[in-house]
Amino acid sequence: MTDRQRALLRGDMEQVVGRLRREETSVAPYREDYRRLLDNHGKMIRAALLLLFGRAGAPAASGPLGPDSPLVTGAAAIEMLHLATLVHDDVLDDADTRRGRPTVHTTRGNKAAIYLGDLILSRYMEIMASIAPDTAFIREQAGTVCEIVGGELLQESARGDTAVTRAYYERAIRGKTAALFRLAATTGVKLGTSDPSPDLLAAAHDFGEHLGMAFQIIDDIGDFDVAHESGKPKLEDIRERIYTLPVILGLESDPAFAQVLESDDPAEVLAYLQAHPSLVDGAKDGARSQLSQARQALDGAPIAPGVSRLLDRLAARLSAQV
Ligand code: FPP
Ligand code: MG
Hints:
Layout (H helix, E strand, L loop, with lengths): L1 H21 L8 H9 L5 H12 L13 H23 L4 E2 L2 E2 L1 H5 L1 H22 L3 H23 L8 H27 L5 H25 L13 H4 L5 H9 L3 H6 L3 H10 L1 H22 L6 H15 L3
Antiparallel strand pairs: 1-2
Helix pairs in contact: 1-3, 1-4, 3-4, 3-8, 3-15, 4-6, 4-8, 7-8, 8-9, 9-14, 11-14, 14-15
Farnesyl diphosphate binds next to helix 4, helix 6, helix 7 and helix 8.
């Protein structure tokens, strides 16, 4: 059963990549740049989340999904929303590389990156509108885009603020990252069946959000992990004066750390964190706590056992990184 479901998910993901490739005509004149993004698409965790929750509530859909099925279409659209945010994020963060390759704005300039992000974002909206079962579905998509932008703005307004709190950080990452994971999961439930169970929707909502929180905390810890190549530039947050969980824990435990931060020297901040390993460990505990809450969200939810195991593996994969 599990092997079969794993094989189904693999097949579904191939369909999603195919569906994304068909969209290159809608992003002209940036077709080549879009193609390069897809050639380096990563694990597509948000699309997987959507497909898994889609299958979780629709035991009847036990065969392979077609290229134009609502779940494949929705999963491709969710990845497009994610791609659009990344292309814009790399401009805002002035990041040179992502997934080990030069970013769009580095190779083609800011204007191209903004237009390409805009084109991908508008196609995401158009595609979701075309498969929406009702207006509440559209409202959730639009509201989540607002939350993502709001999360980014919260982060922006705390730039360089040594008084930033853990609660503030959590609010910002809930918006900028966890909201999209949550949306992927609930969209899957809504597209998988015309009559979604409220318990399954609640499980999708909570699982997605906690998984997304863990994902961002782990990503933020990774920024200080200079020994491990991740395809992204290191010490970028600190260079940009964005204070993430290990730094916030440092500020809470030692007010003198603020002076280290104000020196604006990433090497000094790194040296401080390396001399105080409890700070990164504390952040790892934060990520683990989110992952255990994600797993709890699956308890007792009406999810087919094979699918539930796959969701659990998704959380375990992140768990292995902390
Ligand atoms: C990555 O964070 C960025 C996000 C999770 C969200 C970015 C959102 C925007 C730029 C605004 C909304 C844009 C659109 C198109 C609606 P990070 O910089 O911490 O992670 P990274 O290490 O992957 O860059
Ligand atoms: Mg970034």
